[in-house]
Design goal:
This protein is α/β, with parallel strands linked by helices. It has helices spanning 12-24, 35-44, 61-71, 86-94, 107-135, 145-157, 174-183, 205-210, 227-230, 246-258, 284-289, 295-301, 318-333, 342-350, 356-370, 402-420, 425-432, 436-445, and strands spanning 4-8, 28-32, 49-53, 77-81, 99-102, 164-167, 192-196, 235-239, 260-261, 270-271, 275-280, 304-307, 339-340, 375-376.
Length: 456
């Protein structure tokens, strides 16, 4: 991807000369005749380095430099001056200039400074991205077979440019999977831009995705860069893509087909290199059949599907997740770590978790903050007791006889173990150290559906 250089000088001859030189060296260039125009370009375009004259009408170069560093602290700026003094060079350096070149310009030295400045900017940005990634909780926790399979798929697909469609209920960790794919990809040092399609009003989604030109619609008082453009070279994550308007879907389809788009109200064709990862909690094929989602867009997005199971289908991972979250809260706050009693953990594993992993994380954070004890007890979990379970099951502690209670618990236990083994009766029997025939009898006794296996 070509690096973008902004040339700021009030002398047209110098702008033209530098523009020709840098274009020949395969840089994409922008030119500005004064500071105000330069600030406008930087606010509306991705710029990788700035060549900035000192003496200009209106704002001088040092004032422009100061304002650039306030809004773009990692942007390399090379000062060019025909009135160079030691004092000016020192002041420019203190304001954050990368280099200082005097006129008449030595073109070889200028090219070297530009290349060094770009490397410096890349290293600075990579350092910031690395710190951000270290600070993010991007670890995918779980030992359930479905999670292990997801991790294998991520490892295979991440190094490619294949599009991925992540399917799962709210709170299952779709964004986490998208970030993991980006971090393991060759685009890891480029931007990861997220768009929550469900949170943006329908009349603004196109502007959000593709940007707009000044005056494109009422309220468009300035030019705006869209998310596709911001993600150039990196990854664009379209969260809840099923909530996108049909009009926006058509434009997204065109970008995926041609890697080009136009800003709203604009005529300039923008070329981009973006990997798209989408996520949804909807059945997009059903949405397509009902006219709410484009079938052609679905197949463009669904190159590699990843389906994340709800937490209720992988309750065996709850102890691992709870330990991970509680240790994380302790590290963040600097407080002593806390654990869960056996009874509290059992209660967490019995709960239905309509909000999935996000609900578990939020609950544990609340308990970590509010509990005064090192061990969180069952009594700390009143909001999870059976009366609030979304599956509507009866409270086992109110069952009349001991035999009925035993049978209720046994039935729930077998259902859970069968789900953990994805309906495989033989595997479940081996795990429980039971005869397969005995397990079949119990499943039939409790009316638990199962898949008949050969030889059974």
């Amino acid at each position: 991807m070509s690096k973008r250089v902004l040339i700021v000088d009030d002398e047209e001859s110098i702008r033209v000369s530098l523009d020709n030189l840098l274009s020949y060296e395969k840089f994409k260039t922008f030119t500005a005749k004064d500071g105000q125009e330069a600030l406008g370009i930087v606010s509306n375009e991705r710029v990788d380095i700035v060549l900035l004259d000192i003496k200009m009408p209106g704002m001088d170069g040092l004032e422009v430099l100061e304002r650039l560093k306030q809004t773009n602290p990692t942007l390399p700026v090379i000062i060019i001056s025909g009135h160079g003094t030691v004092a000016t060079a020192v002041k420019a350096t203190k304001l954050g200039a990368f280099d200082f070149i005097e006129k008449p310009i030595d073109l070889d030295r200028l090219l070297l400074a530009v290349r060094n400045g770009l490397k410096h900017g890349e290293l600075t940005e990579q350092n910031i991205q690395l710190k951000r990634r270290i600070g993010l909780k991007t670890e995918i926790v779980g030992e359930h077979p479905s999670i292990k399979e997801i991790l294998k798929t991520i490892e295979r697909v991440a190094p490619t440019n294949a599009r991925v469609l992540i399917i799962g209920e709210n709170g299952t960790g779709k964004e986490l999977v998208a970030r993991k794919i980006h971090e393991l990809s060759e685009r890891a040092d480029e931007p990861f831009i997220e768009v929550n399609c469900a949170a943006i009003p329908e009349d603004l989604i196109e502007s959000e995705l593709f940007g707009h030109e000044k005056g494109a619609f009422t309220g468009a008082i300035a030019q705006r860069i869209g998310k596709f453009e911001l993600a150039d070279g990196g990854t664009l994550f379209l969260d809840e893509v099923g909530d996108m308007s049909l009009s926006a879907q058509a434009k997204v389809l065109r970008v995926l087909q041609e890697s080009t788009f136009e800003r709203v109200g604009g005529t300039e064709l923008k070329h981009i290199d973006v990997r798209v990862i989408a996520a949804t909690n909807k059945d997009l094929l059903r949405e397509s059949a009902e006219g709410r989602f484009r079938e052609d867009l679905y197949y463009r997005l669904n190159v590699v599907p990843i389906k994340i199971p709800p937490l209720r289908e992988r309750t065996s991972d709850i102890p691992l997740l709870a330990d991970y979250f509680l240790k994380g809260f302790a590290e963040e706050t600097g407080k002593p770590p806390k654990g869960l009693s056996r009874e509290a953990l059992d209660e967490l594993m019995r709960y239905h978790w309509p909000g999935n992993v996000r609900e578990l994380q939020n609950l544990l954070e609340r308990l970590f903050i509010l509990s005064d004890q090192e061990v969180i007890e069952w009594a700390d979990l009143p909001m999870l007791r059976v009366s609030e379970r979304s599956d509507g099951s009866d409270d086992p502690y109110r069952i009349g006889t001991y035999q009925e209670f035993k049978e209720h618990v046994e039935r729930e236990f077998l259902i859970r173990k069968l789900k953990e083994n994805e309906g495989n009766v033989s595997k479940t029997a081996r795990e429980l150290k039971m005869q397969r025939s005995n397990l079949y009898k119990k499943l039939e006794k409790y009316g638990i559906g199962f898949r008949k296996e050969q030889g059974s």
